[in-house]
User: What shape does this take?
Amino acid sequence: AGGVPKPLPSSGPKSLREMPHPLATSSSEEMGPALTPSPDLLLPRSIADKDLGLPNGTPVDTSSPASSSSLLNRLQLDDDLDGETRDLFVTVDDPKKHVCTMETYITYRVTTKTTRAEFDLPEYSVRRRYQDFDWLRNKLEESQPTHLIPPLPEKFVVKGVVDRFSEEFVETRRKALDKFLKRITDHPVLSFNEHFNVFLTAKDLNAYKKQGMALLSKVGESVKYVTGGYKLRSRPLEFAAIGEYLDTFSLKLGTIDRIAQRIIKEQLEYLVELREYGPVYSTWGGLEVELSEPLEGVSACIGNCCTALEELSEDMTEDFLPVLREYILYSESMKNVLKKRDQVQAEYEAKLEAVALKKEDRPKVPTDVEKCQDRVECFNADLKADMERWQNNKRQDFRQLLMGMADKNIQYYEKCLTAWESIIPLLQDKPETK
Amino acid sequence: MEDCLAKKMEITVSEAEKRTGRNAVNMQETYTAYLIETRAVESQSEGQCAPVDSLWRRYSEFELLRNYLSVTYPHIVVPPLPEKRADFVWHKLSADNMDPDFVERRRIGLENFLLRVASHPVLCQDKIFYSFLTQEGGWKEVVNETGFQLKADSRLKALNATFRVKNPDKRFTELKHYSDELQSVISHLLRVRARVADRLYGVYKVHGNYGRVFSEWSAIEKEMGDGLQSAGHHMDVYAASIDDILEEEEHYADQLKEYLFYAEALRAVCRKHELMQYDLEMAAQDLTSKKQQCEELATGTVRTFSLKGMTSKLFGQETPEQREAKIKVLEEQIQEGEEQLKSKNLESRDFVKSAWADIERFKEQKNHDLKEALISYAVMQISMCKKGIQVWTNAKECFSKM
Assistant: This one.
């Protein structure tokens, strides 16, 4: 199994063992006793998978602190666990509604715990709203154009039926935003990005936003790539293959999305009929004497199945569909990066050709053409590394997603099974002789 | 139940066959014939099997039999026939009488009908029933010779026509009300169940699409491919499983339908009692008025207004001889009437007694059968849930290998 991307060796002084586990602090009410996890602990997949968190570590859900499975949940569940030191942990939680004169909006708490030198403090807690995440993503795209930037959940809610402030919507969004930051945290280059740092730490993000381009990264240069104008000669095979793959991949995901939606729709229509079906048994029970209890039992049983079905549909809507859509968005943004790469290569090829045509007998290649060549090679290298990382994450994400879907269906059938099994004795019960 | 035919004879409706023939107006028609096989049950089983007798009957002959039984035994809740035309269908089921599934379910229903009659303490002893099972030719003539059609009360056909009964028997009134409600609730149940089946079918079948898309997706994946492909196969299995599940459920629906029609039979008994009571009251009323007339003629007083009385007043009174003659006629009629009333009363009391006995028998049978039906329905649901768990567990296993 491929590993999660290895972060650059931390320049921080502390190792994980010295630092208290992020989930062990009292800053969150859900936390249990302090835990110092051993990174050498490799867990059998079967137990770990039950409440799997995100591939990069910190689980989103926390269950009862006392149970052993939740204990295992909080520990690293990835293959490269041993010997690996994670020095940056980011969580998104605690959504709050803000009502102002001009608008109403939601903010989320973004908590950071780190030992990296790039951060002044070991801990941060800030509040951010969706537009802040959107700003971050744009900044990352601008400043790291050779890398794949994870997608954000959709900005606008198209259907009028969805309530922007409903618990379900906010929770779905929170999970997606949490995933977004964790994917950046995981990335060896993006996680060191200046804007990311500010996003995690600044008390007043708006002030920073206004400064715009004034703050340039000390490490790298802000590179802007020319878009358009050059025609690409030949795309390297591997990038052509990636492009084709992404096309088919997003197509298939789109189909799966439609199928899943159709299933949910059919299930809800089934539910409507079931809701009428159950009570008829009850009505019948009212007519009978000896059959009264059995009929009422069947009615109640069907009612329980209705509840179970409702839960299944809700889970699929809230947990399954959003992740699918995320990956479709991911594919779209990746194709854009591929296009940019093509452009960079095209520009280089064009400049090279121009030099050849000039027929000047210069011993060395002009510097700007050299720069172009560097750019192409950098881009290709970054992109290749990111693609590999993406493929591994994708595999883990879909494995978890599809296993989750199977799980939810199993749970649905188990609930129904329990309901029906429990009324068998009631049905078989012989009344006392009258 | 020692004497009941079902214990002495094995009865099955084993086959169904399409036939073509000529009907009453000499037009060609297609119909289905059913093979009734009977065999005497040997008390000693020494490997000695009695020979099987068999004959073919069509649905209309079953109908004739049932009509005969209904008329001949008005106080009995006569077992119903399976439905004539497919009703309460959900989209996959055909409403065509020639559809093999419909014919098959009807075959089972007809066998069930014969077994019900054969195990009824009163009906099983009927000679016409016996010859229906054993007499190949000429049975129709034998039935018609009984003249039962003449006995049939045409008023029964007018189901909802009210006959004002002055002293209704409360038990029968309540029972009639119950049978109406039962018919209503079971119809409703069957209608909704058909819709539920329809929707459930849709849910399962759409999952089949996962099979296809997972297969297509697996083609572009390296490590994920196998897991996706095999999971897709399980989705196909899941989608296909609904056909058998719903076919089994049809048997449950048939059990409910039987009692839907039984409710009708129950109502018929109540109705017959109602008419009997009505006739009784009419006869009593008629007798009373005749007695009154007699008295008036004898004493010369007119207590109630009558046209005759008025005309006689207007056009002159009768001669004493005429009056004597009238009185005599009336007295004869009164005597006849009193005898009739007596026998009608007796008839009524007998009817109530035997009807009520059969109703009690029916109630017990109904409670037992419906309980069994509910249990088998629950068992079906349990089986469906277990299959669902199995398939999704298999799929989960495949996903885990991605």
About this structure: DSSP finds ten helices and three strands in chain B. Residues 320-400 of chain B form the longest helix (81 residues).
